[in-house]
Structure formats: C-alpha cells, structure tokens
Amino acid sequence: MPEAVGSGAIEAGSAFLGRFAGSVPAVEIVNLPFFFRDEAHLRAAAANGSPMREILDKAVLEETGARVLWWQAYGRNIYLNNGDPIRTPEDIKGQKVRTYGKVLGWTVEALGGAPTLMSGSKQFLAYQQGAVDVGMTGTSGVTSRKLYEVMENMTLSYDFAIEFVAVINNDFFESLSEENQKIILDAAAVVEKQLREEVYSGEDALVESVADKINVIRLSDEERAKWVEATASVQDRFVEAAGPVAQQAIDAAKGM
Predict the structure, then answer these.
(1) Is 241 among the domain residues?
(2) What count of Cα atoms within 13 Å lies in the side-chain half-sphere of residue 29?
(3) pLDDT tens track for 157-168
(4) What CATH number has the domain bearing residue 38?
(5) Is residue 23 part of a domain?
(6) Which of 32, 86, 136, 150 could form a disulfide with 155 if both were Cys (CB 3.0 to 4.6 A apart)?
(7) 200 vs 67, 141, 146, 158, 206, CA distance in Å?
(8) Do 140 and 206 contact (CB within 8 A), yes or no?
(9) How many CB atoms lie within 10 A of CB 61?
(10) CB-hemisphere CA count at 13 Å for 152?
(11) pLDDT grade for 129, boundaries at 50, 70 and 90
C-alpha cells in the first residue's frame, strides 16, 4: 500500500504504520517498549500537529510521496499464551513469539524470546497449532479474531502502541482545489480524534468483555519494572539503526 499510494497507482489507503519503516525507519518509535510514560503521554505525542508527528509525517511525505491524513489508533500491545501466565521477562525466555515489526523483534530478543514474523490474519491458526508459544497483538485483536478460543492467558503489558496510518498521494492531493483539500483535512482531524478516543476509552471494556473467556493478567508495579529494565537497550538499538530522524522524534516526544 505505501508504494501504491506513493506512486499514484491508487489515490489513498490505510496500513499498519510499520509498513512505512522501510522508507522511514523512525516511524517505529511508537513500538519502542515503555517509551511513553503513560496513556496521556502517548495521546499527546501521537496527536495531530504534535512535534513528534510533524517530524514523522514530514519524513513520510518526503520519502514516499504520500501525505499523512490521520493516524489510526489500534490500541496497546498485549501478550497471549497457554499454560503458566506471563508476568515477567523470565516467562518469555526461550519462547517463540509472534511479532510484526523489526523493533518488536528486538523487544522479544531483549526479553529472551525468539521473534517470529507473522501477519495478523495467521494468528488464530498459528496459536491453535502451536506454531508459536506466545502471541503479540492488541486488545481488539483478541475479540475480533476470537483469539481467546486458542489462548488461555492475556497479559496486559501495554508496553507499546499499535498504530495504523491513512495516507493520500500528495500529487493527487495538491491537484484538488483548496476547498476540497480543507474538507479532507478537516474530516481527517475529526476522524483521528474520534477513533483514538473510542479505541483507548474502549480498551477496558474490551478486556472485560473477554474476562470470562481468558485469564487476564495485570502487571504489578514491581513486575512492570522488570520489563522496563529488560527492554531498556531497545531504544539505543533503534536510534543507532534508524538514524537522525529517529533521534529527533525521540527528543520531541520526550520534551512533551
């Protein structure tokens, strides 16, 4: 999709933000484990027009020819498994873990696990057949894909954000009248705000809706501290690999 929109083969589309990491590695900042202090910090950093967003959206436009219309929140990450529930990094050590991005793979490695790249649509069968030991997804994925039917435990790590992005070919956008451009951008701003509010305010309700189908694990402050310590090296690895734009985005987000 990023290539199709950027080339003009299609005018617009939506995809997982990580799909743009090949051209703009810095977009995976949202996948850095425990980088955002809390939900409020994440909301502020990911908001339309924030310093972090301006850096990343500009980079996407310059590198791909696609203009970002809105970021589409999917929720925060959780882990799924069978058997003894996951509470600390020790519980992931030596386990095969489903991932869907480079930084997520680094996180799993830091936790002592073995990352296995896998699309969302393949999760149910992979978990059912035991192709991987641990699942990684958002709370909405547990309900929409009925993953509670093949996994016993859901650990609410909430260690990073899962974001999609809607983009439009910039040449096509600029060919529109100023009036139509404004209509699109105004609508995009409304959609982004509504979606993020719906997703984040609805996470607790989603968890409660499956609480009778899957064992829900909420980490204590002490347990969470162990995760933070175990994954601290991922940020340095990210900056080294993703370059100056990544550092600019990190500085911008930390300054909020």
Answers:
(1) no
(2) 26
(3) 999 999 999 999
(4) 3.40.190.170
(5) yes
(6) 86
(7) 25, 14, 20, 11, 10
(8) yes
(9) 17
(10) 7
(11) very high
